[in-house]
Amino acid sequence: MLVFLLLFCLSCAAFTISSVAGGGAGLVIMPVLGLILAAPRIPAALSIGTMCSTVGRIATFRRAIDRRVVLFFLPAALPGAALGVFCLRLMPPVYLELLLGLFLSGNVVLLLRPATTIALDESAWKRLPTIGFAAGFISGFTGATGLLFNRFYQKLGLQKEAIIATRAANEVLLHALKLILYAQFGLFDRSVLIAGLCVGASAVAALKVTRLVLPLLTHAQFCRIDHAAAALAGVFMLVTASRQIVQKDAMSLHYGQFHGETELAMTWRSHRLALEIEHPLEIEVKHRVAASIDPDTGLRSERLTVLHLAADRGVFVTHRAFGPEHGHRHKHREA
After folding, report:
1. CA–CA gap between residue 189 and residue 194 (Å, rounded)
2. Are 323 and 292 spatial neighbours (Cβ–Cβ below 8 Å)?
3. 275, containing H or E segment
4. C-beta separation of 153 from 163 below 8 A
5. How many CB atoms lie within 10 A of CB 263?
6. Using one digit for the tens of pLDDT, what is the confidence trace for 78-121?
7. From residue 227, how far is each of 147, 150, 235 by CA, in Å?
8. Which has the closest alpha carbon to 175: 280, 311, 26, 32?
9. Residue 86: alpha-carbon gap to chain centroid
10. Residues 6 or more apart from 106 whose CB is under 8 A from it?
């Protein structure tokens, strides 16, 4: 119960900021939902909450919706969302979160620059279907697109109210489609519903703050807050996604010096990649991978590939196999 209370408070704060910044709450809430739900179920809960937020924004700013953008955006976004939900079953979204975090962190550069007016780009209308497909795919895969495409809306000439309203109109059918697909793929359960409704309730509560604050901001201030929120969300996603990858994939870095040799190694899942510098003037790049476990002995076989770069012997590759099925080491050289 305490976890859901924490989720409500953090979601309310995130939606309050995102309502003024034009989005981004979903990207911040995702790591918090990870404390409650398994990774494949996070997008489903997030979609419930953002669906509530989207409906509320449409009701609040419906007169500012740019219907031309919606007509260009949705036809490509819906199949993109379906593809994203399908891919969610094949790969955990944490790696995409890491890439999105890197992308959003680039807003730090925009934040440090002097405030400038974004020029209208007529060619942006031609790219709108492509942007719609990309937004749909990312939304289906992670449950949120957040602030990724706000700058694109600004290039179309939309102002702050129009950005919020048009984004909401673009996303409402996306969330509806995703919820249907999540249910069909078995990504719904009681905990998902409770977490999603908790996020949705906080989103509705945050709309009251939006009505009071948004009229007080100029469009330039809105854009600055947008960049700040995007940069903050990007850093937050980078930290949390990196931590999840390190924990789940057993990733680690090692550095050491042994008997005059220097080694820098990285482990990831069943792989170990090492760079060794030996004297005199010899470098080895080693890749060790653990293969299957023998059902009779319970021992794991391993394969080792070594790239040698030596000043006196040239460049060559050796392969070795370790394990009960081999009986002994096999080694050969390739020039």
Report:
1. 9
2. no
3. strand 271-278
4. yes
5. 16
6. 999 888 888 877 776 677 777 777 777 766 666 666 655 666 77
7. 9, 9, 12
8. 26
9. 16
10. 234
| Crossing angle (nearest 10°) for helices 94-105 and 25-33 | 140
Average pLDDT score over residue span 67-76: 90
Exposed (0-12), middle (13-18) or buried (19+): which is 289, by Cβ within 10 Å?
A: middle
Q: Are 81 and 137 in contact (CB under 8 A)?
A: yes
Neighbours of 80 (CB within 10 A): 23
In 115-192, DSSP assigns E strands to none
Beta-carbon count within 10 A of 333 CB = 10
Q: How far apart are the first and last CA of the chain?
A: 64
User: Of 137, 131, 150, 146, which Cα lies nearest the Cα of 178?
Assistant: 137
Query: Rounded to an integer, what distance in angstroms lies between the CA atom of residue 284 and that of residue 317?
Result: 9
For residues 87 and 325, what is the distance between their CA atoms, to the nearest angstrom? 37
pTM value surpassing 0.70: no
pLDDT tens-digit readout, 144-190: 665 667 778 888 888 878 888 888 888 888 888 888 888 888 878 88
Residue 285 or residue 112, greater confidence = 285
Q: In terms of C-beta density within 10 A (0-12 exposed, 13-18 middle, 19 or more buried), how is residue 43 classed?
A: buried
Residue bearing tokens 């590939």: 305
Structure tokens at 210: 């939006």
| Euclidean distance between CA atoms 218 and 300, whole angstroms | 63
Q: Residue 126 in contact with residue 69, Cβ under 8 Å?
A: no
- pLDDT bracket for residue 335 (50, 70, 90): low
For 126, the 3-state DSSP assignment is helix
Give the 3-state secondary structure of residue 124: helix
pLDDT digits (tens, 9 = 90+) for 241-265: 777 777 777 778 888 887 777 888 8
**Surface-to-core class of residue 79, CB atoms within 10 Å of its CB (0-12 exposed, 13-18 middle, 19+ buried):** middle
